[in-house]
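G.,

No rush on this.
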Amino acid sequence: MKNSILFSLVFSTLTVLSVPASFADEVVEPSAPAVVAPGQPAAPEAAVATQTTAAPAPQQPGMLGMALPFVVMLGIMYFLMIRPQQKRMKEHQALISNLKNGDEVVTSAGILGTVAGMNDKVVTLEVSKNVQLKVLKSQVNQVVKGQIKDLQSNA
């Protein structure tokens, strides 16, 4: 009797240790050792009955679940970076297209002047009496009204 109990404990321990890694999280419940009548050999299969239940495999996230963070990031980037930049570009294009002779402007380099002439890509600025500079039309940053004389009188 003691030998059959000892054998069943050893067998159940080996069974638990030999469980594949994929079943490591499963519950193994050994049953009580079978009672064997004296004089009859104990069958190892009858002595230890283990019940294993197959756990469902963890589900992989779907295509939508994997793509959703990227879509959200692109949406945030569009509203925080791309859309404001496009708005500024449209405003700058409108400013350049509305330039005319006599407008007082500031270039991106900080040069203050009055538009003396222009063609498709170049603007001629008069920065002082008889001093003219040619700058790219795209470098005109803003049109100011009457502020240049105020700034020049302080200098």
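When you get to it, here's the other one too:
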Amino acid sequence: MFLHDITELPIEMELIQRASQVYAGNEELAQRISSSGAAVETLWSPATILDYRQLEPVDISLFSFGMAHKMHTDIYRRLHELLEDTGKSYSLYVSNANHESARLEDARLIYEEMHTVFPRGLYFLGHLSDIAVSTLIAGTTYFAAFFPRGARANNSTVVAAMERGATVLTNLDQQSPDYLRHMHTVIDVMRCDELPTDPALRLRIGAAARDAAGQLSWDHLAHRLL
């Protein structure tokens, strides 16, 4: 049994007593364990960073954040096709959280499938703070957020990106709100023959998105509720 730490719960002490050999992550821990009479040897904890890839400069950068189990890999496949067709280098940065009711196994399977969709240029960044998310939205070429049937008025990730003037890549349908308009405030990847990369066009879309999001603030919502 290897112990990185203990809190001396009954289950921990029972496992220590039943183990034929106990290894401790440091000397202080070994001394605490040895007081129970168990045979213990002091070892160490190796580094936990396993992915040492550098974030290389690319022509196109994309950022996506949301719930891990809600990633829709079929639409990301379409995004991958559009990116490949540009002939440019690209990277997709993904930040995910998990609902407490969601199964971690589901998230793991989605991560594995995403790596098959993007065999290169995919970086999972884990849970990020608001400041980090805001910085990435502002600093990448596109913001990507995809949904089962289409974007909805309660998809706050899209509103957050629009507030920052991002060029949002998403998917729309008949029930998407009127302020999400293809090639005006957002880009619907399912309606694109090619990914719009013209900087002037992206700036116009980002500016229109920021204007539209100005009517979607907490103050405006409170006013409607009252």
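The mean pLDDT is 90. DSSP finds eight helices and nine strands in the chain.

Enjoy the weekend,
O.
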